[in-house]
Amino acid sequence: MKFFNNLNTQIFLSKFLPLTCMSIEHLSLVYVLGSDAKKYLNQQFSIEIDHITLKNYKIGAHCNYNGKVWGVLIIMLFRLGYLYLIPTDIVKKQILELKKYSVFSKIKIYILSNFNLFGISGKNSENFLSKIFMKNFFIKKNIEYIKNYIFLKICIPIFRVLILVPKTLTFKFLKKIPIDIQKNNYIQWLSLDIESNFPIITQKNMGKFLPQLLNLKFWNAINFKKGCYYGQEMIFKIETKKIFNTHLICIKGISNFLPKIGDSIYCFRNNIFYSVGKIFYAIFINTKKIFLQVSLKNQYIHYNTFFLTANTTFLLKIFKYNL
């Protein structure tokens, strides 16, 4: 659905981002409720469900039996159960996997479609939100429930807020957004995810990577002390033995084409091109500059120059963001 008439599709790095409202079309909402919801989700997700409160949402992973990640989610309390955000690209497959073991549990799992999603970030965004909603935001909490709106705070790479707006209140919400504020689509939000090394899971990479290889320890998305959940044994084994052969990083470069998910990036050594990583996600920042999320082999993490193809035409550099 098109919400903005004067959409500006220029993508900004976080330090240059003006005050911006983004329409978030790439995420879906999944509602889980029932008397067994907490117990069931605790057996499926990599986090302690009891740690989700009215003051704090959690980022977690849903893994398969071998510890590989089906999806990365943001989960919160909602009405009589739990609500989580997950990419639309994988939501049907992820729900199918989540429902596999629910036959004997009193639980319902379905996509919730009565919200529209928006993001606010950029210069003075915290003051802007406080002003239009007459509220001091996020004092010792990362989630706010204000009337029928839900606000989720993320502080990396800069202050940004994901807003769940009931469809019945969307027109009222949009009237609060000044005409002169920058309007953009979900690609700007994904750019901030890439910059902050937040893993973007798609159908092409789901079920292939352990959570430690997706920077999910940094996001406190793995609880090593909780009871059994699917994939826990392998995740704990990898953590104990420190078997980390790849690392998720952000790379910026020059290219006249957008590479595909799963394409290789290369390092040039001793007159030979070596494939050293795989592309997780790619976006154009402008006409010839690209932003990549890359799973890079650990032995090349301290290199600074890479190439998009096995020639020296398309130069790539690691984008430094200190995790």
TrEMBL record:
The lineage of its organism: Bacteria, Pseudomonadati, Pseudomonadota, Gammaproteobacteria, Enterobacterales. This is tRNA-modifying protein YgfZ. One of its GO terms (biological process) is iron-sulfur cluster assembly. It comes from the Bacteria. The chain crosses the membrane at residues 12-33, 69-86, 145-165. The keyword RNA-binding does not apply. SUPFAM superfamilies: Folate-binding domain. Keywords: Membrane, Transmembrane, Transmembrane helix.
